[in-house]
Design goal:
By secondary structure, the chain is an alpha+beta fold. It is built from three helices and five strands. The longest helix is centred in the C-terminal third of the chain and has 13 residues.
Amino acid sequence: MMKTVGNTLKIKGGFSIGNVRGLHTRPCMEIVKCATRFKSEVWLSYQGNRVNAKSILGILMLAAGKGAKISVEALGEDSEEVVEALLKLAANNFNIHY
């Protein structure tokens, strides 16, 4: 979903956790590496908890297991690109092959 807040673009999306072990350290590191490449503010939400997607500890605190539905929200000039990159990363199982 695309929305404008002032002059800033706000994009929302979502993905499901497909790997058996959920969001453990390795996928969280991949999310942080991806999100920090962009200038936009990026948040992940799960079960009422909202965390900074550029914080590995924040993402680990979500304790999201297999099948969890994670919401992504980005605010900034490259928000569309960061949401797209995170959805692609999740679809690729966070670049982890067990």
